[in-house]
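Weekly sync, protein design subgroup
Attendees: M.S., D.O., the rotation student, P.L. (late)

Item 1: inverse folding check
M.S. brought a backbone from last month's batch and wanted to see whether the design step gives back something sensible before we order anything. D.O. pointed out we never logged the input encoding, so this time it goes straight into the notes. Structure tokens as presented (177 positions):
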């Protein structure tokens, strides 16, 4: 075989190897892009479920606060309503745990702070309804909503940025007090 034939054979094999490498790289990139899309869909669903649970808990707490004078008179109704609120708190804590698994840490800590603020408001309202003092109901319920808003803002921001974005390393904003 002369050198032209060898050059043609080597060229064909080299072109095939380069073509195979490029095809493999493109397939890997598409696979990674698909996994990233699926991961973001799961995170979005998890954050949405957590926001819904926290808002449901807040709404139930707001309803209790609006009925607090009636609940002071009817302890059976108050016990039943607080039992439902406790069940909503359990659901909220489970959804916060799911957010903690999905991450990132800033979003998880914002969800945890929102759940703790709601739980604290719930305990204060229960304490006020059970007490016989004639003070106005506790006002910390409004600040617990601020924590829920901070979680929702942090979740939206983490969904807009890729998981390893350095911008997400910043601490979440504190709610207005």
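Designed sequence read out in the meeting:
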């Amino acid at each position: 075989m002369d050198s032209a034939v060898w050059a043609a054979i080597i060229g064909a094999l080299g072109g095939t190897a380069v073509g195979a490498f490029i095809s493999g790289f493109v397939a890997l990139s598409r696979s990674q892009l698909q996994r990233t899309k699926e991961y973001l869909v799961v995170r979005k669903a998890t954050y949405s479920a957590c926001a819904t649970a926290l808002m449901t808990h807040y709404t139930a707490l707001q309803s209790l606060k609006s009925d607090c004078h009636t609940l002071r008179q009817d302890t059976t109704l108050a016990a039943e309503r607080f039992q439902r609120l406790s069940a909503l708190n359990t659901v909220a804590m489970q959804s916060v745990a799911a957010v903690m698994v999905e991450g990132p840490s800033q979003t998880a800590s914002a969800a945890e702070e929102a759940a703790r603020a709601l739980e604290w408001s719930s305990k204060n309202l229960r304490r006020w309804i059970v007490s016989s003092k004639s003070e106005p109901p506790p006002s910390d319920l409004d600040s617990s909503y601020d924590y829920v808003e901070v979680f929702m803002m942090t979740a939206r921001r983490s969904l807009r940025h890729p998981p390893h974005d350095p911008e997400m390393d910043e601490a979440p904003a504190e709610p207005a007090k």
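Discussion: The CA atoms of residues 76 and 82 lie 10 Å apart. The mean pLDDT is 74.
Action: P.L. to compare against the previous round before Friday.
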